[in-house]
Inverse folding.
């Protein structure tokens, strides 16, 4: 099996590695410089792991799948989305990106992970005990997914009508929100030109000009720069510094 993932702040990467460890096969980020067509064509089963944004898939993953739609014909799929609390049909909507009747879904699951939305007042940082609990629950859930797949059990979370309706109620405004936010990455005067955000942006939306970071209009809303900037100088849509940062799964801290 080949596991492919996109991860803004390491949550989905963590789940992807757990899944690959349990089922075997390579685990690759779609940001890598790799011959993905050849990798996909040589694998019978492809697992996709990604964060879900308001019941919709990140644009960078949508574009990756569109580029490899033909390579996925006839493949067996395992689809796992990571979510903050609930996502409705976060795993099912992946199939909207594919040609009908060109694939088989072996398993689809939603895994709750720690909150990384650090610039909105109604989302708060989680303490170490809460993060530890969430991560341990995620490990157990991924282990159960691996056991089910090995036993031939098929689960398709998010495929029933209730999940689809919940997804629709959350996502109907997302295209407008994605467009508005994706064009409004804000860099404050706190930026010291260290280049961290430029180096780590998955869509190359940031660059250095005259010793300061500047943003284009190609943001995929992954929150990596907001949570990783050493000066907290990057914000998305809103002005001012983010009040806290999520820097991946560091349960010892």
């Amino acid at each position: 099996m080949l596991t492919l993932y996109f991860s803004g702040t390491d949550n989905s990467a963590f789940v992807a590695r757990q899944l690959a460890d349990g089922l075997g096969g390579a685990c690759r980020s779609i940001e890598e410089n790799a011959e993905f067509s050849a990798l996909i064509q040589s694998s019978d089963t492809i697992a996709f792991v990604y964060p879900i944004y308001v019941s919709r898939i990140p644009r960078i993953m949508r574009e990756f799948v569109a580029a490899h739609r033909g390579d996925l014909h006839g493949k067996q799929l395992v689809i796992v989305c990571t979510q903050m609390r609930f996502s409705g049909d976060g795993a099912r909507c992946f199939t909207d990106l594919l040609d009908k009747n060109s694939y088989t879904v072996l398993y689809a699951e939603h895994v709750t992970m720690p909150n990384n939305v650090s610039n909105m007042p109604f989302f708060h940082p989680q303490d170490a005990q809460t993060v530890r609990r969430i991560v341990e629950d995620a490990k157990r859930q991924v282990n159960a997914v691996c056991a089910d797949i090995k036993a031939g059990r098929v689960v398709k979370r998010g495929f029933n009508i209730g999940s689809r309706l919940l997804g629709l109620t959350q996502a109907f405004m997302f295209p407008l929100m994605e467009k508005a936010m994706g064009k409004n990455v804000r860099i404050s005067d706190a930026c010291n030109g260290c280049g961290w955000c430029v180096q780590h942006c998955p869509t190359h939306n940031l660059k250095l000009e005259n010793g300061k970071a500047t943003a284009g209009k190609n943001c995929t809303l992954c929150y990596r720069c907001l949570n990783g900037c050493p000066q907290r100088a990057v914000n998305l849509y809103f002005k001012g510094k983010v009040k806290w940062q999520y820097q991946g799964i560091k349960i010892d801290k």
